[in-house]
């Protein structure tokens, strides 16, 4: 069967390449059009025609449009292939016009957010999310998967989360903190990035609040079964690795959630300058 005669070939992204190839091979334009006509079913046009008929019969056009769009979104989410999408995108060599139109509309942007969460390594989705971010089109609505795959989006979401937490005009809400937890604890790279920023802010007027936020992140990571990793990250970022005795004492008490004379005595000696070469460790050895 001729490739141009497959069902609705005229709607396929490869149709122009095949037409050029067949034309160079000597096939006449009339023959090529006949093949396209043989496979034409016109499902998209029939769907539009049915919607027009419903509107003529008095159905609400906006409701019809929502129903059709909802069905299309469900089909795309079900059948989307990142491999095929990347292949089409790479062959195009430039931003497809349909992608510009999708990123311009809130409803289709929501679809891109969902697809980017489902397929975070898809080049097309990464490009689409970068375009949304560059245009300032609500990239903060993306989820942790999409943010983790795109630094620009991650920074935008992180900035929004920090602004919400540090807004002096209102009390930070549980939702604000949960948003930051989801973002920071998505993977190790995100966690260390956020932790480093919080550490750099620990000497500012909001320092105590930043340390408190870091403690909440550490608890969240521990609740996900990565308590030891959290300790190592906090120790490394805070410079605690240079003060092993103090870190060991603090870690011991944090692990048991109880104080004990031995660790308290160790910390007293260190901060009194009686150990560690006579130089006491910094006040914030770690966020813990």
TrEMBL record:
GO terms for molecular function: RNA binding. Pfam families: TH1. It is found in: Nucleus. GO terms for biological process: negative regulation of transcription elongation by RNA polymerase II. Keywords: Nucleus, Repressor, Transcription, Transcription regulation. This is Uncharacterized protein. It comes from Hemiselmis andersenii (Cryptophyte alga). InterPro entries: TH1 (IPR006942).
